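We store sequence, tokenised fold; for instance:
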Amino acid sequence: MGLPPVPQKSQSVPSDGEGARFQAKACRFWTESWPSPCGFTGASKKSCVGGGGMRASARAWTAVLRGYGISVKVLVLHAAVPLRARVRAVLERMLCEVVDVDHAEDLVETCRRERPDIVLLEWALCGRRWLGQLSALHEDPELARISVVILDAGIELNDALEALRMGAHDILRDPGDDAELVARVRAAGESKELRDTLRKWAVELPDLAFVDEVTGLYNRKFLGRQLSGLVASARRHERALAVALVDLDRFKRVNDLLGHAMGDAALARIAQCLHAHLREEDYAGRYGGDEFLVLLPDIEREGARAACEKLRASVAASTVESSDRRLPLTISVGWATWEGEDPEELLARADAALYRAKEGGRDRVCGAPPGERLSAPERLV
């Protein structure tokens, strides 16, 4: 059925395994030449390895490194062995994972194999012949997140501008200063994280705009747009179309007796029934309060009636429960088939049928009579 996926909440807290790996790195680098946050230096740090001091200091270093460590994977593509070794030494102290190679025939394939977050790329190693590969990397959906920093001792201005235009993130003269190297890598890492966040938002924003939070179904805004499109398609291609308005009977009673949390659970249960009993091409959503709207393309009167009756029976077999009470659920359904009218009038006919279903005792399905015309699309219930 044409229903949106339920958004998954991202987890920002690292897992136990990730935390253990991070602290292991802190333990390893704690015994090196960095000033100790606990007041230990050199041999005095190593002398406490056998006791509890190592663990305490490692925890302190973990806190410090979380503040300025750069937890990224860096691919260094440079012909000079001494430079690669120095870059590795500096960045590993900052908790980077470093992979270095002296050449690569294909930048895109190398990045696809290594999956780095940042590439430090020697311009002399690639030159203008790799500008197309920079562009291909930038345009690849899986690899566009990678930040590329060009390294060169004397790159020409035009070459630098062209590299930036083709997707490079930054230009850094062959690093003669550790602080600048760390600063540029940190900036590239933050740029990569920002792009990851923007891509995540690009995926989630449609859900935030068009999905109801309680039920995981489409919201009224999306349904209105979809109905307009379906009516236009039905008119242009002479296709059948039906709509159904579904109302949860005595919803206020559920809220009053069991609380609003159980009221939300009842709405979610209706959504589950819609998922289970509608076709892939159908659309369903929360239209407002305790009311749902179902769009049924390419379906005639008998098919619409049967679909609504199947849904009503499914909900009638459901209950909502608290620790000490169980309440049955029922719905009333009003449906109408499209007869050439505008979306507003089609909804008004379904709404009038819903009113008759509720007036007739609830837990029932009513269809709009063929040829019915209403003077105004006013809400009746």
